[in-house]
Amino acid sequence: MQPMVSIVIPTYNCPYVDQAIESALNQTYRSIEVIVINDGSTKHEEKIKPYFGRIKYMKKSNGGTASALNAGIRMARGDYFAWLSSDDLFLPDKIEKQLAFMRRQRASVCYTNYHTIDPAGQMIAERAGVHFDTSAAFYRHFLQGCTINGCTVMMEMKVFAEVGRFDERYRYAQDFDLWLRTVPHYDFHFLNEPLTLYRVHEGMGTLQHGGEQMREGEALIDRHRAAIERLIRDGRRAEVKEVRCSMEESFSKAYQENLWGDEESLSGTGSNLVQTETIRRLLPPLFQMYDVKTILDAPCGDFHWMRHTNLSRLDHYYGIDIVPELIQRNNQLHTHPQRTFMHLDMTKDPLPRADLILCRDCLVHLSFEDIRRAIRNFKRSGAKYLLTTTFTGPRVNTDFESGYHWRALNLEGAPFHLPSPEILINERCTEADYQYTDKSLGLWELSRLSL
Q1: Contact of 255 with 303, CB cutoff 8 Å
Q2: Which of 43, 129, 242, 363 could covalently link to 13 via disulfide, CB atoms 3.0 to 4.6 Å apart?
Q3: Could you tell me the pTM of the whole model?
Q4: Rounded Cα–Cα distance for residues 383 and 294 (Å)
Q5: Alpha helix locations (H) across 290-384?
Q6: Omega prior to 3 cis, within 30 of 0
Q7: What is the Cα–Cα distance from 356 to 305, expressed in whole angstroms?
Q8: Residue 107: helix, strand or coil by DSSP?
Q9: Whether the Cβ atoms of residue 284 and residue 309 lie closer than 8 Å to each other
Q10: Can you point out the beta strands (E) in 40-152?
Q11: CA dihedral 301, 305, 306, 309 (to 10 degrees)
Q12: β pairing state of 316-321 and 356-359
């Protein structure tokens, strides 16, 4: 039997409550109950009525968010508790993904990343959550304020039996109080995947009652300071456990759902025949000029544009990719005695030796540290040359988590400071209405690169 998750939605005069209820009812995980607690609303109650029969509902006199959450917890029959503010939204697979993660990790408490949206539901900021590499960093931030978005939290109901429910004396920092009481007893596991949409609007409690929330938070920090400092000092119990969506999962998702949205190539618009016309023409003479007999194409993607490139001068072509389905597909469609396709992670797996590594449209998807790992791994392979994407314009390089999203990078800029390339091929890029006319392939001798 699947465990039940109780989703509790406290609401007070909220114009978005129907959207919150819809997002809870539309979860892909079906063993749920949705409990709506009307905390004495005088407006927008008509938005709740259409869901009677599909939700558990209770109206009570106004007592604040903590009292409404506690009322919902008392009504709940589930094994797990999830809180959804009536102005926020759960993504459809929120409960399914978070519960699966918690069961794999044997976690009693878990929080996730989230996106922020505006009143109309349009994206403001992606991955707005704060996460930490060490438990000490996690605890130190508890001495500054609450960094956990309550609507990303899921916990086993047994936690309330040990630490108590929300303290109704706190009207605005009731969540911070509960986390402070919980961390000495339970690990907080972090799933670095946005599963909640957090709405920013003029009527939100954080803006309406920011001063009161701050004062309550400061009082809570003083009250729990000794316990938190003890956790920082002795490092016991509550370890922050983060599991990022792996690169393989992220790029596999992009492939499976065609997230880059090109009708011609599963590897995205940059891999169609229009955008690769220049490099398909110039690569063969470059291989001849530098006496390149073998190349490693990392990543090879769907091999779409490369199969239209003259590779007849090469002794062997190696294509690697982190997406296993792409490698399987390439081996089915593009087998040839002088071609080898392999499922490898360029940042860490041993690589076949080649004269030149072509790494086009890939480093732009990686974090700074993963870029360093990839280039170090390229050097370990014994290859002589690296031909890779760089943008030559005056750009400020930004760091982010590796995945299918991307940004332009100038590899001669900070923090990489690569020397000037031996050869620079401007790709004549017309993507995004000519926003990336500086997109180029730069050729470096790997022995000259130190990262």
Answers
A1: no
A2: 43
A3: 0.56
A4: 10
A5: 324-333, 368-380
A6: no
A7: 18
A8: coil
A9: yes
A10: 56-60, 80-83, 89-90, 109-117, 123-125
A11: 180
A12: unpaired
Helices (H), 46-184: 65-75, 94-105, 135-142, 158-163, 174-182
Q: Which residue has the tokens 């390089």?
A: 397
Q: What is the number of residues in the chain?
A: 451
Q: How far apart are the first and last CA of the chain?
A: 52
C-beta of residue 134 within 8 angstroms of C-beta of residue 240 = yes
Residue 38 CA to its chain's centroid (Å):
33
3-state secondary structure of 294: strand
Residues 6+ apart with CB under 8 A from 74: none
Residue 405's pLDDT is 86
Kindly tell me if the per-residue pLDDT of 448 is higher than 50.
yes
Inform me whether the pLDDT recorded for 237 exceeds 50. Answer: no
Distances (CA, A) of 213 to 82, 138, 183, 384: 22, 20, 20, 59
Q: What is the pLDDT of residues 292-346, one digit of tens each?
A: 999 999 999 999 999 999 999 999 999 999 998 899 899 889 988 899 999 999 9
User: Helix, strand, or coil here: 9?
Assistant: strand
Beta-carbon-side half-sphere exposure of residue 205 (alpha carbons within 13 Å): 19
Domains of the chain plus CATH, in order, are: 5-244 (3.90.550.10), 250-448 (3.40.50.150)
Look up residue 343 and give its two tokens: 């499922």
Name the E strands within 268-408. Answer: 294-297, 316-321, 339-343, 356-359, 385-391
In this structure, the strands spanning 154-156 and 109-117 are antiparallel
Distance CA 69, CA 208 (A): 20
Of 259, 249, 297, 235, whose CA–CA distance to 406 is shortest? 259
DSSP state for residue 270 in the 8-state scheme: G
pLDDT, averaged across the chain: 91
Tell me which amino acid residue 63 is. Answer: G
Instruction: Map tokens 């065609």 to a residue.
Output: 258
Regarding beta strands 80-83 and 5-11, do their DSSP bridges make them parallel or antiparallel, or are they unpaired? parallel
Is residue 171 within 8 A of residue 66, CB to CB? The reply is yes
CA 141 – CA 111 distance, rounded (Å): 15
Q: Where are the alpha helices (DSSP H) in 201-243?
A: 205-208, 210-234
Is residue 284 a contact partner of residue 290, using CB atoms and an 8 Å limit? no
Look up residue 413 and give its amino acid.
Answer: G
